């Protein structure tokens, strides 16, 4: 039988070279598992306040520094609520300090009144049309077959373009928040906070000692 004694150190006790090795080994400690969940939850709450119901299971992203990276989501849109929500900035009921670059649609007020009064059946949908990380928005409307609604249809084309621009703005907002959170969680400051909060110990050369400590506990 042989007994081996190893000195373990807190992060603050390591020399600069060992600290560098420890930080390098733990570069992903804060982004290893579902770190983005609260970003998803915030986004869902913000858009819900303005009439967009996001399916959390259909929220996705890839990132952050390669061509093709981005985010996407699937949602049902209540057009009347969306117009009202953006006009009155209702997302601020959830996030009072949040500024979003969203504007009301430049559409004939008579058509908007028809939608607001439910005289015109109009709904929206946001989808991820392929495996790429982008979104596509659609407007669905219903008209009786025995009338000519050319002028209304022209205004609804404008409304669909507005919906697309609104959805893309929100998707960029989602991706920006994901990227900024990732960048923060991979900073030295955030990694050190996690190390200290979890009371990690290291060998003198900066290797994390979790496995050594577990073996010692099993032996004892």
Which key phrases capture this entry?
220 residues, alpha+beta, 4-stranded antiparallel β-sheet, 43% helix, elongated
- Mean of pLDDT: 91
Helix content: 40-55%
Rg of Cα set:
26 Å
> Using DSSP, what is the number of strands?
8
Note the gap between the termini.
15 Å
- Total domain count: 1
Mass-distribution shape: elongated
SSE topology string: EHHEEEEHHEEHHEH
Main sheet characteristics: 4 strands, antiparallel
Q: Tell me the strand order in the biggest sheet.
A: 2-5-6-7
Instruction: Please state the structural category.
Output: alpha+beta
Spans where pLDDT lies below 50 across 5 or more residues: none
Describe what this molecule looks like in 3D.
- This protein is α+β, with helices and mostly antiparallel strands.
- It has one domain.
- The protein has seven helices and eight strands.
- It has helices at 16-25, 37-48, 79-87, 109-116, 150-185, 188-197, 210-219, and strands at residues 9-10, 52-54, 60-62, 70-72, 75-77, 121-127, 136-142, 201-202.
- The strands form three sheets. Strands 2-5-6-7 form a four-stranded antiparallel beta sheet. Strands 1-8 form a two-stranded antiparallel sheet. It has a two-stranded antiparallel ribbon with strand order 3-4.
- β6 (121-127) and β7 (136-142) form a beta hairpin.
- α2 (37-48) runs antiparallel to α5 (150-185).
List the helices and strands and how they pair.
Layout: E1 9-10, H1 16-25, H2 37-48, E2 52-54, E3 60-62, E4 70-72, E5 75-77, H3 79-87, H4 109-116, E6 121-127, E7 136-142, H5 150-185, H6 188-197, E8 201-202, H7 210-219
Antiparallel strand pairs: 1-8, 2-5, 3-4, 5-6, 6-7
Helix pairs in contact: 2-5
């Amino acid at each position: 039988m042989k007994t081996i004694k190893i000195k373990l150190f807190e992060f603050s006790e390591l020399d600069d070279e060992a600290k560098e090795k420890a930080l390098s080994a733990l570069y992903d400690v804060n982004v290893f598992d579902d770190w983005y969940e609260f970003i998803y939850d915030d986004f869902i709450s913000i858009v819900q306040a303005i009439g967009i119901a996001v399916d959390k299971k259909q929220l996705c992203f890839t990132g952050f520094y390669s061509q093709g990276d981005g985010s996407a989501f699937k949602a049902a849109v209540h057009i009347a609520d969306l117009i009202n929500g953006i006009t009155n900035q209702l997302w601020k009921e959830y996030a009072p300090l949040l500024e979003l670059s969203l504007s009301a649609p430049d559409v004939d007020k008579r058509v908007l009144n028809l939608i607001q009064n439910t005289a015109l059946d109009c709904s929206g949908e946001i989808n991820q049309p392929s495996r790429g990380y982008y979104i596509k928005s659609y407007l669905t409307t219903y008209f009786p077959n025995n009338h000519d609604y050319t002028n209304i249809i022209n205004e609804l084309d404008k409304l669909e373009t507005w919906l697309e621009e609104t959805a893309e703005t929100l998707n960029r907002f989602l991706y920006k928040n994901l990227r900024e959170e990732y960048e923060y969680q991979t900073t030295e400051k955030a990694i050190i906070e996690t190390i200290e909060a979890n009371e990690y110990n290291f060998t003198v050369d900066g290797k994390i000692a979790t496995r050594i400590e577990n073996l010692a506990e099993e032996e004892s």
